[in-house]
Amino acid sequence: MEIINLMALRHSAFYSPYLMTFVESFLKDEGLTANYKVATPDCQVDQSIIDGSCHVAQSAVATRLEDLDAGINSDIVHFSQINERDGFYLAAREKDDNFNWKKLIAKDVLVDHFFQPHAMFSYALKKQGVAEAELNIIDAGDVDQIEKAFRDGQGDYVHMQGPYPQQLEKEGVGHVVASVGEVIGPVAFSSLCCHRNWLETDMSKAFLKAYQKSMDYVISAPAEELARKQMEVNLFPGIDVDVLTETISSYQKLGCWNQNTEISKQSFDTLIDVFLSSGYIKNRFTQDQVV
């Protein structure tokens, strides 16, 4: 077996098509054994790809936009889609079956300030007729710090990726009231990236076969089955299996995963609209500059 070094910018059930390549036997069937790790401040995706210690990484097309805006070239290319929807949710302190986004006005909202989640949240607000300045936006730090702040009583609402809001709901700490993905619709959200030279290798061809099989499987398999298999290899310690099942099911219903793993022009153009609207970039780029 040949070792393939996989990396994730973030770790979430949202990336199940990527995770299941090695949780199931899809990579092994192609002669590959996966070494998987999550990026840290001292071990970043871009540098790991450039220095050759990472073959494939879960990232986002948007990570190239700021570099392009600054005129920075890169040998990193994005070649396959993971998610065609935003995977973040809003959770409230209290259950609210009649939630609308205007209820966020004048409230304390813990928002993930990593550039793509923040840009998407801002765009969703605008689509719902709410200005970000009308909220008391709180930047509590990274994912773990955001969750801790909400558990400690800070914020009326929290903006997080699954399965963490769902776990808050299971414990009665919060209640999921909205999906950012439902508001924005199809968008080039998450993708796989690599060094452009790696795309010409036999390992690349083997990985793509495994990834397509995994995507097909994740779309069609029962959410409970996917959750159980991810739990068996301890991918989400501290998360209950029924919570993980609900999270995966919600992503299936939302239409996050598409059998066509190409990054479509429509979803890319929406991404550009999001980032122009948020002010993160100043120029409109074409798909072939990134994908």
Question: Based on CA inertia axes, which overall geometry fits?
Answer: globular
Number of domains: 2
What is the overall number of helices? 12
Q: Calculate the mean pLDDT score and round it.
A: 94
- Describe the sheet with the most strands: 5 strands, mixed
CATH architecture of the largest domain: 3-Layer(aba) Sandwich
User: Strand arrangement, largest sheet?
Assistant: 2-1-3-10-4
- Described by its quaternary structure, the protein is single chain
Helicity range: 25-40%
Total beta strands = 10
**What is the class of the largest domain in the CATH system?**
Alpha Beta
Overview in brief:
With 291 residues, the protein is of the alpha/beta class. The protein has 12 helices and 10 strands.
Fold topology:
Elements: E1 2-8, H1 16-23, H2 26-29, E2 32-38, H3 45-50, E3 56-59, H4 65-69, E4 76-83, E5 88-92, E6 108-110, H5 115-127, E7 136-138, H6 143-151, E8 157-161, H7 164-170, E9 175-179, H8 180-184, E10 190-195, H9 202-220, H10 223-232, H11 241-254, H12 265-278
Parallel strand pairs: 1-2, 1-3, 6-7, 6-8
Antiparallel strand pairs: 3-10, 4-10, 5-8, 5-9
Describe it.
It is built from 12 helices and 10 strands. The protein has 291 residues and is of the alpha/beta class. The protein folds into 2 domains: 187 residues, 3-Layer(aba) Sandwich (D-Maltodextrin-Binding Protein, domain 2), CATH 3.40.190; 97 residues, Periplasmic binding protein-like II (D-Maltodextrin-Binding Protein, domain 2). The strands form 2 sheets. The chain has a 5-stranded mixed sheet. A 5-stranded mixed sheet has the order 7-6-8-5-9. The protein is globular, with a radius of gyration of 19 Å.
